[in-house]
Please model this.
Amino acid sequence: GDSVTQMEGPVTLSEEAFLTINCTYTATGYPSLFWYVQYPGEGLQLLLKATKADDKGSNKGFEATYRKETTSFHLEKGSVQVSDSAVYFCALSYGQNFVFGPGTRLSVLP
Amino acid sequence: NAGVMQNPRHLVRRRGQEARLRCSPMKGHSHVYWYRQLPEEGLKFMVYLQKENIIDESGMPKERFSAEFPKEGPSILRIQQVVRGDSAAYFCASSPPGLAGGLYEQYFGPGTRLTVT
Model:
């Protein structure tokens, strides 16, 4: 079945460091791909999305590119801030199937 | 356009009592999903509903848990005879009716944090 794999956390970075959180997927068709962010004590918020191969989703300095050839959707940010500390979930959607990865916790230190 | 609403935000129940969690989807959304999240863990899918229909309940425990999404009113997740292991955050998400191919993302509510004492 469809599945999403993320790099294990926690990831700890210093402020202004470069961030990459890896995400790969397995799907029978051509899914839409998403990154969600969950801040402490809150629900998930959509961060960015891409609906077809080579699409780049971007928001708040975060970017991810839909790579069909490597079935990946890695999340990147050039310079993280303390306020980016949260849990990040990669997800795919295909038909009525919506699958989340296990989440990666990011801690950014001042 | 109000977002997904969940209430209560916090719920405390004693073992053996019933818990009712409510979710009002975003306006125009006809698909509702329930997830459970244990502390420091990821999301676990429980059930997917459309108005008056359960589409996929493969993640729901077979006993004590039930869900509905009536023609009028919010979606309800009901847990009977709660046990300590039911303590978790329960999130509801909604999405609009979409075409095949899953083009629409899910929008999440703030969650209900259930504590069983």
Remarks:
- Chain A touches chain B at residues 29-32, 34, 36, 42-46, 49, 51, 89, 92-98, 100-103 (CB under 8 Å).
- Chain A has a mean pLDDT of 93.
- DSSP finds no helices and twelve strands in chain A.
